[in-house]
Amino acid sequence: MKLNPAEFLRQIIKDEYIHLYDANFFNDLNHKQKQGFHLLKAIYRNKGMKKFRQKPPSVILRNAMIKTEQSWDKTEQQYQKRLG
């Protein structure tokens, strides 16, 4: 369920207040406001469930370590090619 900002606003804001938002309001938002808007969309899309939660720190760390190992292996392969 991919919603653009205007469609999402029509679903969550009462009709009597929707005229206060112009079509380009999303472009006028700063970075933090856009993040908050995307968070609202995630909550609405998942019907309040916690499916959009961030991964636990242990999973994030494990993924970072795997990525580092892969980049180290790639660097080592490139070094071996230069020597060979």
Please summarize what this structure is.
This protein has 84 residues and is mainly alpha-helical.
Descriptive report:
The chain is mainly alpha-helical. Helix content is 60%, strand content 0%. It is built from 3 helices and no strands. The chain has helices at residues 5-12, 31-45, 57-83. The radius of gyration is 22 Å and the shape is elongated. The termini are far apart.
Secondary structure: elements and pairs:
Layout (H helix, E strand, L loop, with lengths): L4 H8 L18 H15 L11 H27 L1
Which features characterize this protein?
single chain; 3 helices; 60% helix; elongated
Specify the overall morphology.
elongated
| Overall radius of gyration | 22 Å
Helix content: 55-70%
Q: For the terminal residues, how far apart are their CA atoms?
A: 52 Å
Determine the mean pLDDT: 79
Query: What portion of residues belong to β-strands?
Result: under 5%
Structural class: mainly alpha
Quantity of strands, as a count: 0
- Biggest beta-sheet profile: none
**Helix count, DSSP H or I runs of 4 or more residues:** 3
What is the string of helix and strand elements?
HHH
Low-confidence runs: none
